Amino acid sequence: MLKNPSPSPAVRKITGVCLWLALAFFTMLMARITLGYWPMRRDAGFLQIKQQYLGIMHWEVAFWIHVFTSMLPLLAGLTQFAPSILKKWPAIHRSMGRVYVITVCFITGPASLIMACYANGGITSRLAFGTLALLWLGTTAMGWRTVLQRKWTEHREWMMRSYALTLSAITLRAWKYLIIYAFEPPPMDVYRVVAWLGFVPNLLIAEWLIRRSRQYRADSLRKQTLSPHSRR
């Protein structure tokens, strides 16, 4: 049985550009949401339903850190998976990669873990956001470790998982609007569901892409091994 042919380089390039543009668009929308909190307003957006936590110092510190630094991984991530940037401007790739890792591992990642303990929706939502924060920290740390070890393929795979979790900031809101528009459930029920939907499908897609890439590399290596030229 013949396998489905791999997409042509032109198709892969067009698909990559479209995905990059979509990510850039939604990242800009997230930037607009972030700017809604500036200057530090205690009644803006999400804070309207978190008034009971205002005055808890560590929660407030974690919240403002998360709000004003969570855009950095989204923006930095846009530069990490573009082959043209990696080939033409590797210094940009490395610099933005450092920004990404430092922000996630030492700033907004720990802040997210603190916020998860106070998530709306009870234990279901808190468990979801806590799991997300720990996975985000863990996958990013592994991406950092593997690049220091010069394990480039493993580094790329771990960073794909990490960025899939970073994108939960976007996909969570997309699922929220879709569910509200389609079903109109109670707000807290929506929150409990999207807390998981925001990142679990992202991780599954990342794993599928990783396995697909591994299969592609294995097939390419097999073809090179079986090629008559390789036997000379």
Give the overall shape, derived from the CA principal axes. globular
The number of domains is: 1
Round the Cα radius of gyration to an integer and report it. Answer: 20 Å
Report strand %.
under 5%
Query: What portion of residues is helical?
Result: over 70%
Largest sheet: none
Low-confidence stretches: 1-5
Which structural class fits the helix and strand makeup?
Answer: mainly alpha
Q: What oligomeric arrangement do these chains adopt? A: single chain
Total strands: the figure is 0
Average pLDDT number? 85
Output the number of helix runs: 10
Give helix and strand order, one letter per element, not per position: HHHHHHHHHH
- In whole angstroms, the N-to-C terminal distance is 29 Å
